[in-house]
Amino acid sequence: MTNLAGGPAWLATQNDRTAFRLLLEHGPLSRSQLGELSGASKPTAGQMIARLERAGLIAPVGEVTGARGPNATSYGVRTDSLTGVAVSILDSAVEAVLVDPTDADHPAVVLPVAGAVRSPATDVVRAVEAAAHAAGVGRDTVSMVVVGVQAAVDDEGDRLSFTDTLPGWPERGARALIEQGTGLGVVLENDVNLATMAEGAATGASDFAYVWVGTGLGAGLEVGGVVQRGASGSAGEIGYLEVPRSAATLAPDAEDFTDLLGGKAVVALLGGTDLADALTRLPGNDAALESLADRLALLLDVVAAVADPTRVILGGPTGVAGGTELAALVQERVGRRRDLPVQPARAGERPVLLGARRLLVAGIRERLEDAIVASGTKED
Hints:
This protein is α/β, with parallel strands linked by helices. It is 44% helix and 20% strand. The strands form four sheets. The chain has a five-stranded mixed beta sheet, sandwiched between helices. Strands 13-12-11-14-15 form a five-stranded mixed beta sheet, with helices on both faces. The chain has a three-stranded antiparallel beta sheet with strand order 1-3-2. Strand 11 (208-213) and strand 12 (217-223) form a beta hairpin. Helix 1 packs across helix 3 (42-54), helix 1 packs antiparallel against helix 12 (351-379) and helix 2 (31-38) packs across helix 3 (42-54). The chain starts with 7 loop residues before the first helix and ends with a helix.
């Protein structure tokens, strides 16, 4: 029998999708609670629960107490029905975390890469296995992976550009190699674009420029809640732009903005063995904050002239370490020429993983809703 729109089977499928969304939004619910939230009768709510449980999407998780009569069973979305892994490929490590349909927190893992044989498949296979193990979830539940890389990503041509920090990763075919090595659905994305998505989710902003300042530099531009990637995925590669002549008073030898603001420049300014060590010396260091603000103001002049954003958010290790004080100093300088709010990032220490997680949650939930539709079709 065909699942005609408006027919009993179609209505059952729509009810099941509604119930599934309510369980994701509110957490575990009893039959009565689901009926109240959905507007369905208790028998109908019971049927929705039975179908979702039979499809393997929900399971009993406890009992609801406090009401008259016997305790009612509560049902929740199964966190092991379908999962994904968010991966961030860094120059010195690979970070990963498991993602489930409920968007629950799972432990992040950090895998050193020093001395390891590197390739797209090798890096991601290690990350997926470690993340699933840390979460106590079977590797066989993982169906998707979102990988953030320090490179421009041309998705249509499966091509990477500016791959200085990705030893063992080819310019072409990285996504295909990961798909072959893992058997998973793969999304390959620029790390700063993922961090931009995370910042939009954390702040509720939908129109802004996100400037990443760390070992390298990058910018993400979100317009109407959509990250702009450019024709070949290279939008925001600002670190390779030549500095203006006015930068000579700040760093006479700087040729591009990475020379002016990248990891080596910050280490030279603050001292330390590497960028992470140097940034521990930044808070409260007025002279260094002033110098960084002067340099960032030059970079933001370029970003503002090209993108004309409603605001700029400073992220990346250096932006986060400088925090509110650095953002205020930069805004003071930029404000002499234009009205442009400058704010510190709010998405936490691992914004790339957070952005990948956001994509995965949406993708996993879409697949599970597709499974609800498929299950309803089979029952016809």
